[in-house]
Protein 1
Amino acid sequence: MNSFTPHISAKKRPEIRQLDETAINRIAAGEVVERPASAVKELVENALDAGARRIEVAFADGGKTLIRVTDDGHGMAPDDLPLALSRHATSKIDGSDLLDIHSFGFRGEALPSLGAVGRLTITTRAKGEEAAVIRVAGGRLEPVKPAALSQGTVVELKDLFYATPARLKFMRTDRAEAQAIGDVVKRLAMAEPFVGFTLRDVSGGGEGRTVFRTEPENGDLFDALHNRLRRILGAEFAENALRIEAERDGIALTGYAALPTYSRGSAVAQYLFVNGRPVKDKMLYGALRAAYFDFLSRDRHPAAVLFLTCDPHLVDVNVHPAKSEVRFRDPGIPRGLLVSGLRHALATAGHRASTTVAGATLGAFRPETPAAPRVYQMDRPSQAARSLSYFAQAPAPMPGFSESFASPSARVEEVIEPAPESDPAALPLGAARAQVHENYIIAQTGDGMVIVDQHAAHERLVYEKLKKQMAENGVAAQALLIPEIVELSEHDRAALLEHTEELARFGLTIEPFGGNAVAVRETPALLGEVNAEAMLRDILDELDDLGESLTLQARIEAILSRVACHGSIRSGRRMRAEEMNALLREMEATPHSGQCNHGRPTYVELKLADIERLFGRT
């Protein structure tokens, strides 16, 4: 059987050769330009570095046949055009300090790489200069020529990868590539809310179809960002997002994060930026997951747009060809800031749940479809008129009626008119008016009604109390009669011993035991009998993947959650009015009470206007 070996043949001694400029640029293009979206990213970032306030991106056939980026930035002088197409030629750094980077680009590789694999045309005009154009195709440079342009720069890339046709075989469908281009433009639009963006698909020729458009935002940074996110991620995200603002040791965290009850089935709505640069960093995504760890089940993912800003010397952005990953000097600081900043914001949200819960509830109602359109002509009656009407329409007592419903599934509490200053209906979760099916509390608010799942709500309240007690008193540990010895690799042993203090806080005590072994001397009492080796392996997997482990905390809190479940008000229990109101008041005072231990909502709020709309009264 023939076997393939990727190594150089040993039959003849290989010679070291100096590659020509065209080959060098094509190799660089393989790193920088992975697909059409990569080219769009590089060109739009160049436009932003040039101070553009409006950027238009046009593409055809998923960017394979045409990508055109037009901006109103400061442009380039004609004499600078040939140099701009030379490798490692840039106006963004002087090379003296590779950490002092304040721009998106800095390597000077994008334009020559694009010119090496496609047909590139750059038309530009700087203030006080004449417009000029330069073309390069497959690495062959043409001379600079005069052009017509009022200001800014137009970069047009045709037939991407025509000079390296093998790369075209790895392209996805036009639709998938177009979607990737849209994602790149939207990420950069989030990073620059004061810049206007237009994205057009011109596959059929002409002006094409506008895929995405947003005007420059006004106001302060938070208002501008909030409006931009409303346009990109939708009104539901904007309505259910919490403002994030925190700072620690020279690193600032800003942005918006959604409530736990506004969660997604995948991580598609997570956007992270470092010094304005979109990044996909494993450590930061792990920190985001850790911040929501206690509020979402493993199959749900938070939605957030977060910006970390710091001195450029505290972070190295030159660790990935596409600059999509970064390396912090002290990774523990941004990670801790992200976790604590998000948890503080979620705690200040109190009992608040996302508005999408009410929307889903209203959507579940199916009004009767009339045979012919009805015309509603009614004025909204006063409270007094409604009371008289209800009294007049109340059914007369029927003999045997109460006996036939000896175990009613709903009870109505008598409404006692309170003093205006003590009206519980004016409170966020209102005043209890009824209990339905011995599980759901109906409360009246100032402008609507609230339906509370009594078991889920009380379960969360008990859970929060248990967590607070654990934080104050620590996790009880049980000493093993015979310490369990676990053999590990040298790397795993070192990684585990670095986290001994953190593990000890959760009742797991380990210590070195010669060679590459560790001895497990204590385990959390809550967990009972455990497989210490399997637990350590799970912890090591998370340390390797995320830089931290949530395994032990997850197991302990799962126990607390089960204890809370068994210790809470059960479904089917009838509650008195004072008990129901006490539960509502405690929910208002307890952080995170808007969702149960599994991330589901504990209550649904319906506005009076929405209820009236269901009955055609508006």
Note: The longest helix spans residues 454-473.
Protein 2
Amino acid sequence: MSTQYDADLIVIGSGVMGGLIASRLAKAGKSVIILEAGPRVRRADIVETFRNAPVKLSLANMKLQGAGSPFPNPPHIPSTYGDYLRQTGPVSYPTKYLRVVGGTTWHFGSALWRMIPNDFKLKSLYGRGRDWPIGYDELEPYYCQAESELGVSGVDGQDESGHGGEASPPRSEPFPMKPLNEPYFMKRVAEMLKPGGYNPVIEPHGRASRPYGNRPVCAGNNNCNPVCPIGAKYDGSMHIDVAERAGAKLLDNAVAYRIEAGADGKITRVHYKKPDGSSHALTARHFVLAAYAIEGPKLLLMSTSEKYPNGIANSSDQVGRNLMGHTGISMNIMMNEDVWPGQGPTELLVYLNYRDGAFRKDIPSYKTKFRNTVTTQQIASELLAKGVMGAKLDEEIRKRSARSLNVAVDFETEAQPQNRIVPSKTHTDAIGIPVPEIYYSVNDYWNAGRDFAVKDLERMAKLMEADVLKMDTKHQDRQHIMGTTLMGDDPKDSVVDRDCRTHDHPNFFIAGTGVMPSASCMNPTLTGAALSLRIADTLLKEI
């Protein structure tokens, strides 16, 4: 490394995407600096905070959002569980991401799905959304690498297209780990739904089914969110540990607020603030923005100058636009027999009958998932509020805990330019950095999917002879942030090229789910990880 630079590579963000890239480059002997806005956290501290909390926060229970999070909430990185995200659109986008070393994977459910080949050709096949500039075959080897790096458990040979046929999508390597055992409730539900043509799919996920690296076998604690108490579930801090052992330097509590470019278009330095408000800057040969799909575009839009009045990487005016999510609905049902959910991981049983097909011209693809959770505290609170006491209270808690199920639907959404994130002009955080302002909406395509899926859910409930307690169609957020820095071949309508290199700056890459031109209906983490490993390969050729 030349002494005129602080590092060969600066990675902004220490989540799974940044950690994968930093660890690959550091292990290859490159000098790497990682900037993270938030602090380091210790698993033991998070578990203890969660254990002692009067309200046990769960992403599966939207009513408890805002009741608190076991993760830090210092003034310089306000928690997304509060009012940090400013909502301006007709549909709220109350996503919850973490600004700590290791990122949001600390509290994710760990679903790690591949996209299928047709997901990359949404516009060409169905006249909806956008096509990708690359196809499944080009990304498939990196899916294999990502599954190995993250330690994915899955069922080899199952049809993840949802049609109950041959293995799909195509794979060149088996899953790194076999699946965990299926809880009784999943087997019973699958038995009930099979006559209706519903084909059960077991979700690939990042929980260890055998000792994997430093991770023990999943013990079925059933609080994957907000934290796996034993570290059986993957999180991004694991790759940060690898990167640091290989020589990378991590700066925590370093909030990037400006990226600077030279006259030749190359990025020259990144400016960051510490919690005391002091400003610092670092230089490098190459830069990777891996700050997720809200903080990332916010930083780009804040980085204005005389040459770049609209911000860095934004000659197309697409930075921050095309925000997508898996905006969904859900159904609460009461079974007529005990099925005992809550054993093992929080999610495993999925139905994908409407993942792909000609119907995507008219309604979005969607995933239907049975949540393996038991909200015992909420059940007890509701009963107490109704005056139920004594033996009857005990009887009802036992009954409802054994029979209550939540069935959720995640819809694919289209990239729409009006859905966007911008830095607020009126609100800042404690160190003077604008907070994110979000405009989000759904279109008639989503509405048509909602109407169709409601009938589908009702049919499922009938097959299970279950009572529908509630059908919630109020635009539930699924915490899957996509879009805002789209990939494309045309610099006029995209932010990065097929290699995730920004069109405007040759030494600047963007990693993560923000570059995805289409969302599919599946959790995007594995796709973001595969793209990040692809970036690492490109960087290794150039540095």
Note: Residues 408 and 497 are 34 Å apart (CA to CA).
Protein 3
Amino acid sequence: MSAIPESPSPHRTYTERRAAAQADLTALDRVSARYANLRTLAFLAAVGIGGFILAGRLPKVWWWGAAGAVVVYGLLAVLHHQIFRREARAKLYVLLNERGLARLGRGWHEFTERGERFLSASHLYTPDLDVFGQGSLFQLMNETATRAGEERLAAWLSGPAPAAEVEARQGAARELAPRVDFRQDLCVDSRVAAREKAEPNLFIRWAEAGPSLDAIRWAQPVAVVLPLVTLTVYVLGKFGVLPEATVWLGLGAQLAVALITRRTLQAMDQSVEVGERGFVRYAPLFERVESQRFEHPKLRQLQSGLQRPGEKPVSAHFARFSRLFSFIEFKRHQFHPLVHWLTLWDIHALFALERWRAAHGAQVRHWFEALAELEALSCVAGLAFDRPEFTWPVMEAQGPRVEATMLGHPLLDAPVPNDVSLPGPRHALLITGSNMSGKTTLMRALGANVVLALAGAPVCAKAFRLSPLQVLTSMRVKDSLERGVSYFHAEVLRIKAVLDAAQEARGQALFLLDEILLGTNTRERQIASREVLRLLLGTGACGAVTTHDLSLAVLADEPGAHVVNVHFRDHLEEGKMVFDYKLRQGVVDTTNALRVLRLAGVPVDDPEAPAP
């Protein structure tokens, strides 16, 4: 089992990087203040000179001085804006490193990006294993800035990947983990684009929409030939070969073409302008990815996906698009109507963009998917960097199988480690124990680590081996007054979903059931619980079940099934219950429900207790 490579202390790394970013921010604040003062001086100079001229105390030639002051003010404003942008980036670097320090403690619980929109009560495991929501895996790991990156990370946590893909993600994340510079630069570039309201999906829709100018395809050659003919007629008129008024025939024809094509050109102009911000603002991200020298095949594959063989890189396509779009932006100029009339400018500009779309439109979605993949990989790499004590799981071909040494819950600050072994099909742990002793926490620890492992992430364990499998849980079953579903019925529906999914997975599944069928009487619960466990094991799945029903322990004696009884326990110290959260072999021989009630101030008696 290979552990995560040695790297600098996360706390030291984030502390030093935060200090450097704060120093940059302080320096930029001083520069910004100087620019503000200079802009004020330039403004006062322009106003003062103008005032003296109007008062007759300076000659009118000084209007040039006022104009010069206005120009200087404009230049200073442009330069000052660049300082503002650099300050915004420096603040983001400070924020990223403060978030990094927060993840090393409990501060990450304050992060606002919790992934609630990915929660689904019907999902096979995410509601029970704190994958999304407050205090979740997503809240801990998420450092994406784009919606696509967020959705990619959520998808990884919501479904298991094949073994080959898991190993590819592991290798890529291991390479990215120590590259804090690149990961933070990528995140800052993404956040800057997101702050500017860039929405690439709008541009993707435009890029994939297909031709918009087919209805006026005839206008493309006309826009080339007609202005040249008009110019030739004008020149010939000047030399007396043709009447000078003949040129108005050409200009009239050009005006007619402009009017006929106006509506179609405006429709395309509006569609591309809506999406343009969501495209060009991401150019720095692609340039940064292209500039990297990656070693792992997955990273190189993602990088090469941004450049087809024999073609220029994506950043070059961005630059080409920006130049073409700038021609469209000329419509904002006061002389645009005249220029368009004389040259049919918009026809040339929009057909050029149409050619760009025909050449690259089908690739645009793939470009942003590669970027989303890199964002998700950076989140996995960030977890590896922040938790150097975590280890990379080893994937096994044969399963179902989950074996862990010193397994802990990845969301707890100081989890108590336990060993868990489910070495093959039809293996199960029957976990008994007193209340609050750690039964459910162990199952959640096992499930959460399997989710991390099959997303390609490191896990909270000293060693971890598993096969590709589907995680299935029944822990936080809720009734629904709105849907008229009782607790027992809701639990039955959940168990049915778990059974169906285990059969669909052909036994390649891990089931985790917490105190099932509590909503019925003891006798029927015992019968039903045994049958449910037999049915699940009959699919070939492996898993764990917690219970207070000690009668289920007899399942360990049934032939064909490999059920192991394990338990947690507590003991009294100075009249207080103490838990060590250590897993032990066998069935628990103590209970504590009445003791918990009494400690909480509920005066209950034990009718079976011997008389004093």
Note: Residues 220 and 351 are 7 Å apart (CA to CA).
